[in-house]
Amino acid sequence: MEITVKTLDGIDAGSVTLSDEIFGLEPRADILHRCVTWQLSRRQAGTHRTKGRSEINRTSKKMYKQKGTGNARHGAASAPQFRGGGRAFGPVVRSHAIDLPKKVRALALKHALSSKAKAERIIVLDKVSLDDPKTKALKEHFAKLGLESVLIVDGAQVEQNVALAARNLPYVDVLPIQGINVYDILRRDTLVLTKAAVDALEARFK
């Protein structure tokens, strides 16, 4: 797949060939869904917790004698059916993470990249750099390229001025190539790759 390389000012700067093995697959929603679910489940803190009946600070004495009162048979007032009692089957501290094979994760990343390529929502830039960390300057560059909701993936290191300028823009994410992931690709309208990022992706999946 041949794609035009642009500068940050929107000027053509040659072309690059994207591998069909990475950017030319037919996207599968089920694989993308599995990977996004895996990612988001790992983000959950799992710190929710309630007290059971054994942890409630109430007496464990039997409320009244077993027989002869005409009332139902009850034990301690910390039972779940009473106001102030413990929670039955309440949430406990746990991990929400699920397993997903590495091969499926790698395949999902290819399908996410292919979905952007199929929708023609990939832009390749020769490099992404700014002279000063100014948000206004970065917005002007984005206006020339017609970008608003965008994920920028750079090489091994993100240019510091770009990272500082982009952090005040609500629909702009900037990641190094090590941080590229399915969820962030899908949640933004346009994927912007630098030539260094393209080379790193092809080396990674070679």
TrEMBL record:
Gene3D superfamilies found in the cross-reference section: 3.40.1370.10
Alphabetized UniProt keyword annotations: Ribonucleoprotein, Ribosomal protein, RNA-binding, rRNA-binding
Pfam families: Ribosomal_L4
Any one GO MF annotation of this record: rRNA binding
GO cellular component: ribonucleoprotein complex; ribosome
Matches recorded under SUPFAM superfamilies: Ribosomal protein L4
Domain of life, source organism: Bacteria
Biological process (GO), any one: translation
Family: Belongs to the universal ribosomal protein uL4 family.
Job of this protein: Forms part of the polypeptide exit tunnel. One of the primary rRNA binding proteins, this protein initially binds near the 5'-end of the 23S rRNA. It is important during the early stages of 50S assembly. It makes multiple contacts with different domains of the 23S rRNA in the assembled 50S subunit and ribosome.
Cited NCBIfam families: rplD_bact (TIGR03953)
Subunit structure: Part of the 50S ribosomal subunit.
Descriptive protein name: Large ribosomal subunit protein uL4
Taxonomy of the source species: Bacteria, Pseudomonadati, Pseudomonadota, Alphaproteobacteria, Hyphomicrobiales
Designated gene of the protein: rplD
